[in-house]
Structures are given as C-alpha cells and as structure tokens.
Amino acid sequence: MDIRQFILPAGVGLTHVRVYDSPGPDGVISGGAHIHLVCAEIYFVLKGTGQIELLTMDGVETLDLIPNKAVFFRPGTFHRVLNPNRDLELLTIMQNGGLPERGDFVMSFPHEILTNPPAYAQAVRAPTLADALRRRDLSLEGYLQLKAAFGRSVEEGQTALRAFYRAARNLIAPKVDGFEWVLKVGAQTEVKTSLDACDFIRAGRTDYLEASQYAALYPLQDAARPGMCGELHSYALDETFLAEGRKVA
C-alpha cells in the first residue's frame, strides 16, 4: 500500500483507538509508552474515561480524560493512556500523517534492547494482539524505570531521559530520508496547494474550484490492527483524493 493513502488533507492522519483493556506489568490497565521524534499529536476522547500520563523533562503529569477533551503533545513527550474502566476510545490526530506507519515512534523498552537495533527491531514487531500486548508490557518496563528515576530526583530523571533520547535518535536516524519523502508528498504538498489557491484568488481565477472533491470514511467496519495504545482503525483516503503538488493548468 502506498504510504500516501494514510494522509488526509493538510497532511494530517486520523486513527480510531480502542485502548487496551488488560493490565500491564504494574497492574494498571493501559496502553504502551512511547514518544514521537518528528510528529506532534492530539488525543481526542470519543468515549469513556481514564487518564493519560505525560513524561517530559519536567517529570510526570497525569491528566484526566473525559469525552470531548483533547490533549496535545509535541515530539519527545512520553504518553501512556490509562483505561481503568476499560471503556476508553480515542481519535488520534497525527501531524504528518503516514510517519507513524513509517516508524516515527520509539517505545521505552529496557536499555539493553533500546541500544541494540536488531533486538529493538525484533521487539517492536507485533503482527498479532498477543504480540502487541507483549510489546506494550516491554515498553512499560523501561517507562517505569524512567518514572522511578524522576521519583528519586528531577536531575536523575532528566539524565535518564536524555540517555533515552540519544538512543531513540540512533534508532530513527536511518529512517529520516523516508520521513522527508512522506513530508514532501503530504504536509508540504498540501501547504503548497493552499498557497496556489491564494495565487489563483489574487489572479481572479476560479477554475481550480471545479476540481473540488469529497469523501466519507468509516473504517470501523473492517478488522482492527494492534497498535501501541490499543486496537486501531486508520482513516485512509484513496490516492486520487490527494493533492499532486502542482498548480492547476
């Protein structure tokens, strides 16, 4: 499948998530813990209640999740969704749609896996739900170590988080050429299309509006796939809906 099929207008990606409803190694019902290195993200609560843990250089903060609440976080923010009532459903709104599918995330596996690329590549694979839950639990092992470091002192936590960031960068660096391609055919192309529209309006043209399109998507009718936080349904537009990155003749 062409990665551009994951990209929605303005280069945004949408995914419906049913958060995992089984406990992790600390006994808490939750998804896994991870960061993104390029993309910002929004979690919009569709149904249910719970919490989200966010870990940054300032430490750990827990925010309540209720229907219609949105939580926004930028690259580098650890996020873990807690689902104590087993009823949380989220709409994730991802900057640069297509990059998560291409690998813009690093899970907080223990240090010996995180610093061994072949071991990390094996651990991050999750073709089945059972594999995804194993991956979640492994990510929480490393995440709980980071939380414990911040519990001892902010300085120790920051040192541990910086070490994680360095290891994450080493894992992601080989992928950045592919990331740039996704950005160019996605977000950059969509911005160019909007700038072209401004030029057309200044020039008194309306012919570009004659190529208008619409679409309706309902991915929940298909089988879910296992993700980092829960079971996923991605909203995937047909390639013909996407901008081509050039002005209308």
Which properties best describe this structure?
single chain; 249 residues; alpha+beta; Jelly Rolls; six-stranded antiparallel sheet; globular; disordered C terminus
Figure out the total of helices.
7
- How do the strands of the widest beta sheet line up side by side? 6-3-8-1-11-10
Largest sheet descriptor? 6 strands, antiparallel
Q: Percent helix among the residues?
A: 25-40%
Task: Label the structural class.
Answer: alpha+beta
The topology string of helices and strands comes to EEEEEEEEHEHHHHHHEE
Estimate the strand proportion: 15-25%
Explain what the structure shows.
- By secondary structure, the protein is α+β, with helices and mostly antiparallel strands.
- It has seven helices and eleven strands.
- Strands 6-3-8-1-11-10 form a six-stranded antiparallel beta sheet, with no helix packed on it. Strands 5-4-7 form a three-stranded antiparallel beta sheet.
Summarize the structure.
The protein has helices at 99-102, 111-114, 117-124, 129-152, 154-172, 176-185, 187-202; strands spanning 13-19, 34-35, 41-47, 50-56, 59-65, 70-73, 78-82, 89-94, 106-107, 225-226, 230-234. By secondary structure, it is α+β, with helices and mostly antiparallel strands.
